[in-house]
Amino acid sequence: MATFLYKLGRLAFRRRHFVALIWVALLTLAGVGAASAPAAGNTSFSIPGTEAQKAFDLLEQRFPGMSADGATARVVFKAPSGEKMTAADNKAIVEKAVKELGSGSEVVSVADPYTGHAVSKNGTVAYASVKYKVSGMELEDSTRDALKEAAQHARDAGLTVEVGGDALTATPETGSSEIIGIAVAAVVLVITFGSLLAAGFPLLTAIIGVGIGVSTITALASALDLGSTTSTLASMIGLAVGIDYALFIVSRYRAELAEGRDREDAAGRAVGTAGSAVVFAGLTVVIALVGLSVVNIPMLTKMGIAAAGTVAIAVLIALTLIPALLGYAGRKIKPAGEKSKLLGGGRTPKQPGRPNMGTRWASFVVRRPVAVLLLGVVGLGAAAIPASSLELGLPDDGSQPVSTTQRRAYDLLSEGFGPGFNGPLMIVVDAKGSAHPKAAFTEVGDEIKGLKDVVTVTPAAPNKAGDTATITVIPDSKPSSATTEDLVHAIRDKGAEITAKTDAEVLVTGSTAMNIDVSQKLNDALLPYLALVVGLAFLLLIVVFRSILVPLKAALGFLLSVTAALGAVVAVFQWGWLSGLFGVEETGPVMSMMPIFMVGVVFGLAMDYEVFLVTRMREAYVHGEKPSQAVVTGFRYGARVVTAAAVIMMAVFSGFIGSSEAMIKMIGFGLAIAVFFDAFIVRMAIVPAVLALLGKRAWWLPKWLDRALPNVDVEGEGLRTLDDLDEEKELVRA
């Protein structure tokens, strides 16, 4: 592979006009496709295989036009101090608001609080329920604006009015976060390379790759039902790996120049060596992202595949466009150790023989491997302890900042009707196979009334055919509590008994039940997903490193860092440690998607650092250095680049911590701390310590397996052969 990529790098360097034209054409084509494609709303959210989804599907069949999975809004009204919502003036304001709320084209129904018994016992709080035809993510902006305007009109008339429910769900804006990440990345790259031009190449190519990927997703969104949220993960990961991969190759190019090679040969060797590491690092990321399909949540599967496509584009750009741009730059890109005139006067270092920081650190670790290993493992183990108390759930309006109208509506409803009112459960009774449907409906209601944590059970509301009915249950506890989850399971257990008696099937659904089912589904999928991703990557790394212990160490180190990161997430977002520092206003369960999301994203980035750092060590070992010296050599050339890449990723992810959305804030913190643990503790400390202790055993591979595995030549041994051939040709000519 190294020889093929070497030739590809030289070809791109020589034919830079052609290569640049191809990528510009692809970017233009994707942009035109995105601009001309029909607008696509957010993809429909379904969770196949869950009871809540089964109930939604049944409601669509038995209650046509009900829009069971449609968005809902609760417009909550509170009377001024000393007044009641039943007063004539206040009642007139509410009735006017109800009329205004029902005028939208996407509105199915609006429930008047005075006819629907939606006024609190003390008369101070009332609410109007609005039902929409489509889900909250699919609502038109004009519909949301109309909802807000109706609330504002009632507010202007003198009432306290807040709006809750999923109708206000909108895709979080992340543009400012990405700009912050790019700005920090630019500063780090300038410091790393000592050149504005060299620093600009990784940023430019990463933006081009993300532009092509996101534009392609936008162009295909309508045809493939991708939705606007699909590009979120693609842009974040594409930006991250795009900068990383270009950084690796530009850094190796400058190192080859420092060894006295001409520019075309240096570009070829950079692609042949660092490019080989990029290819396999990219494959591990693709495996992790495509593996999200194991969860069997369509939206997550589409996001993973779209992001994997963007990663593949980033790899191709790094292998072709980077050497082409290096060809355009010519002598403006300085060898390693030199700075541009603007940043250092073009002067070489005053002490060229002094070991760099990476060399000094690796030498220390090689001398004290046991102490460094124990310190790293114990430190990460301590950070991982809170993960044993991990509670999973999905955020609701109760986890929103108190400054939002959703949170204030949530609090008003809790004040007027009790905390469980924010998470009603919908019971669907399918009595089509029952001899006495009405009796079955009554039986279900009576049985549920006898359960703990139940405040209210509404009478059954059958469909026209009389074979299916819905019953609303109001729990005593808030939606995200363990007590409410226990109630859902208790109703389902009781439903199995009722089915045995009456032949009527009892299903529990609603947003609260759906959240519980999603959490369970994600929790059940975590271990299979982890086994698939780590297992496939383990096999891939065996081929790359031609070793059993090095890939095993890489996988175990990743598990340690991601567990420690989950522990940090639990400590901050569930326990409330340092919550004020990170702007966490409400503690609660960790988002259900967080563990599997962190495994997928962090594993890919961790393997980037592992492949780039350790392939340098293997390259040195294969070329004759002792194992301990090979570790030092790998750090001499790779530590600065890996450090820069990790700092850039931490900056990109940390930008999301400032988001007002609790979910985005949690993702940003979790990914940033995971990259810190993995890059600086696992890859920079534990990995060299383990390799120093193992010595030659680290590179052991059974002979039968060595013969069976393909030789991908990541360490560039084939390029050494090319050097020998060139020397022979020179001797013949002489």
Overall description:
The protein is of the alpha+beta class and 734 residues long. Helix content is 63%, strand content 7%. It is built from 23 helices and 11 strands. The strands form 3 sheets. Strands 6, 7, 8, 9 and 10 form a 5-stranded antiparallel β-sheet that branches. It starts with a helix and ends with a helix. Mean pLDDT is 82; it is low at 727-734.
Helices and strands in order, then pairings?
Blueprint: H1 2-14, H2 16-36, H3 51-62, E1 72-78, H4 88-101, E2 107-111, E3 125-132, H5 141-156, E4 160-164, H6 175-193, H7 196-224, H8 230-258, H9 263-290, H10 298-329, H11 341-344, H12 357-367, H13 369-384, E5 392-393, H14 405-417, E6 425-430, H15 437-449, E7 454-457, E8 461-462, E9 468-475, H16 482-502, E10 505-509, H17 511-545, H18 549-574, E11 590-591, H19 594-622, H20 627-654, H21 662-694, H22 703-708, H23 717-733
Parallel strand pairs: 5-11
Antiparallel strand pairs: 1-3, 1-4, 2-3, 6-9, 6-10, 7-9, 8-9
Helix pairs in contact: 1-2, 1-9, 1-10, 2-7, 2-10, 4-5, 6-7, 6-8, 6-20, 7-8, 7-10, 8-9, 8-10, 8-19, 8-20, 9-10, 9-17, 9-19, 12-20, 13-18, 13-21, 15-16, 17-18, 17-19, 18-19, 18-21, 19-20, 19-21, 20-21
